[in-house]
Amino acid sequence: MKKYLSKDEILKAMRRQLYVFLILILMVFWGFLYSSNRVNELQHDVTTMKHELDYAKGRIEKLEKK
């Protein structure tokens, strides 16, 4: 036999699906923000290391000249 759902049951089910969908959207958004922030931090670290290496290279060349 077919079971007919009432309007309230349908609305409850739709509401639950909407909440799950919103939670998933928030998780994806948070993951994107976390990933992009981490990439920016890594780029900053790489730039800092390059500057430190350039400085050390310049110091070594200066010391070799003496």
UniProtKB/TrEMBL annotation:
It comes from the Bacteria. The chain crosses the membrane at residues 18-35. This is Septum formation initiator. Keywords: Membrane, Transmembrane, Transmembrane helix. It comes from Terrisporobacter mayombei.
